[in-house]
Amino acid sequence: MDADAVTGPPDGMVDAEAELTPMLRQYFECCADYEDALLLFQNGDFYQTYCEAAEETARVCELTLTQREDSTGTYPMAGIPVDDAAAYVERLLDAGYRVAIAEQVESPAEATGLVDRAVTQVVTPGTVLDDELLGAGTTNYVAAVAREGSTRAVAAVDASTGECRVTSPPDDPGLIAELDRLAPAELLVGPDASVDPEALSVDPMVTDHEAARLDDDAATERLEAYVATPSAVVESTAERRACGAALAYAEWTQGDDGPLEYVTRVRRYDPRDALALDATAIRSLELFENRGAGASETLFSVVDETACALGRRELDGWLRRPLVDRDRIAARHDAVGELAAEALTRETIREALREVYDLERLAGRISRERADARDLRSLAATLDAVPAVVDALEGCESARLRTLGERIDPRTDVRDLIERAIRADPPVEVTDGGVIREGFDDELDDLRATEREGREWVADLEAQERERTGIDSLSVGHNQVHGYYIEVTDPNLDRVPDDYRRRQTLKNAERFYTPELKEREDEIIGAAERADALEYERFREVRSSVAAETGRIQALADALAELDALAALATVAVERDYVRPAVREPGGEIEIQAGRHPVVEATQERFVPNDAALPPGSVTLVTGPNMSGKSTYMRQVALIVVLAQAGGFVPADAARLPVIDRVFTRVGASDDIAGGQSTFMREMTELTEILHEATDESLILLDEVGRGTSTADGRAIARATVEFVHDEVGATTLFATHYHDLTELAGERDRVRNLHFAAERSGGKSEEEASPGGDVTFLHRVAEGPASSSYGVEVARMAGVPDPVVGRARALVDDADDAGTQVTLSDAVEAGDAANGAENGTADADAPATDERHANAAAGVTSETLATLRAVDLATTTPIEALNLLAELKDRIEES
Prior knowledge:
The protein is α/β, with parallel strands linked by helices. It folds into six domains: 3-123, MutS, DNA mismatch repair protein, domain I, CATH 3.40.1170.10; 134-273, MutS, connector domain (Nucleotidyltransferase, domain 5), CATH 3.30.420; 317-411 and 549-576, MutS, DNA mismatch repair protein, Chain A, domain 3, CATH 1.10.1420.10; 442-535, MutS, DNA mismatch repair protein, Chain A, domain 3 (Orthogonal Bundle); 582-788, 3-Layer(aba) Sandwich (Rossmann fold); 825-895, no CATH class. The chain is built from 29 helices and 27 strands. The strands form five sheets. The protein has a seven-stranded mixed β-sheet, sandwiched between helices. A six-stranded mixed β-sheet has the order 3-4-2-1-5-6, with helices on both faces. The protein has a six-stranded mixed β-sheet with strand order 11-10-7-8-9-12, sandwiched between helices. A hairpin with a 4-residue loop joins strand 8 and strand 9 (163-167). The protein is elongated and about 130 Å long. 40% of the residues are buried. Belongs to the DNA mismatch repair MutS family.
């Protein structure tokens, strides 16, 4: 979006700018101060845009474009209602605009000339504050990146909750991965292009950040306004600069000259303190997003039994950053276990938490002086629910629950203040009156009593005057222009008393007032105006008193959020029959008895559990038919690990798990056309990262590596990958493949194992016993050893491929099986020997003739190639050397 194109006066008005009307001049002056934003300019009940900005606003928001005419000429105008602005602002944000809101900062009635206006807020995707534009229980970060030498840092601020977090990823891939985990809505990029946004899996709005805001001295000064000792929070110049930039930008968007008082939690974290999940793993495991038919079927949707927005945000963070500290994991498991066992305690807590509003966002609005009376009542309702939570936690035994019980402060002083000051059901607008409770302020009560008594006197006046004058049609009324009046129709004017004073003449009537009515009117209006002003003043005082407790309210919010997340995991454990996993130190075996995929289980009537026994550093080759459950099995192992380290119980009969430092996945196929990557290139890019980054404490899931290229190349890459992971990386690995010859590696490498998914042909025969061609039933049950077939033709038939195609394919498979034509590397060598022997006149006359495929393969295998192969020492050849050799041999064959 090029905001500059829509902020200035139209070309036809540039020369006449000095002659602009005062209001247009004010509009364009505001535009000039916020050149990178589209300005919404308040004019009464509407936010107006003019000229090219009006044309763009009308297009994006689907508004009727109108015209305005003044001394400068005619130009386009488009407006949106102030009361319904959020919906239109959302459209503008979605279209890539930043939106500056210029409000009337003085009352039109009090203005001596042009109403003063000022930009009070700049709305950007990363600094949205309106609840209507924010998802409940979600985070909304603006992130800034800074570099200093070899150190890189990223800071993220959620302007709606007052959270600020900062970290230093170890390298550039780590920086990209951390930004993907944060998923910022907006990314601040400095002049040094600290990060390439195109490398991210998320798609934030990119904002060029001024160099001055990334300056170390400015950042230090900025950070000192939020924390007493910046060095206790940040550990490098890069972290300080990133924090300063993000906070400065948040301040600018809120129109504040000083620090945001509600940003009280500036915290540093270390990515190494969490199980690392990059964007590929988060996407492949479908933790938060399912790109299939059931878009809402994710791990988060299954375990999200939270009662309030606070807990939902907390649980989201736990799944994005599972723990790697065994003691902290055990502490969460202790708490979840106790809440699962104590149904009354759990349900009492959950019932109370359902009454809890989003304290973090409430505290933010109150601190920014943008909270209305209903926000204060929402805070009071939340504080009303807290004592029940404290009572429920009394007697809990787990250390985590006891600590939370000590941290949860009901803030009865704040609750009592709001209860005494604010009416139970106040109006939305404080200036409408009726906000402050009677009895809270004596002066206000006196003014309201005077106003009320005056109105009651006026209400009785009509009956009194009818009796006094004998005019039955006489009425008493009020309007904003003329105030109170007594109306008499023309036929009755001869009976009007002498003390009536004419106020207004109508077509068929006259309006009058009396000195006493005028006096009462002055009393009523004066009392009402003074009462409204005093009520607003008292409301602001109450709000300010509550704002002074922002830090404690946020601390309460933190405690309630953690408790809600724990209670949610306990609820899931009880309702879905999850068990507590035994978590041990890194490097142990993954042992799962009757494990289940948490999402698939929740969406299907029947699910077949499977065991998993994965020794440390093992590479388990998983073979079997398509649709048999290989990918589900691998994902369920990873999801059980993630859920366990997040603090949850797991879907299994029993589980013993080591602490995993990182989960890597290469699952599924997709192009990245915009990035210039084919499916195979993307697969190889992801594989490269895995082979470089994985450690012997990682878990790797590889699904069909090498399937995006030729069979020979793909088989070679798959084999070399297995060997490299086994020999060099040492990570516990699940490797699903249709290259059945890879299963031979189990006899060559001590930590390579074979598992397969069983199937039955029609008649209940096993896959080994039955003949091809019958109906196949996939048992979804894992078993030791390699599979005998991939059943590709059967899957094609089940998918609805036309019978002639299926029949022809089955015949070809049968012919190939009868002729033994599944050519492997050893087949090629054997056939090559035969072919070379015949060429040299030394072939065995009694040897059977090779089939056509063997002959074709043998034709390109020269004696030189065979000699090279025989000279290879497999025991000392590295995977990379093997790949290079394979490429060389392939080139020789193709050239021969």
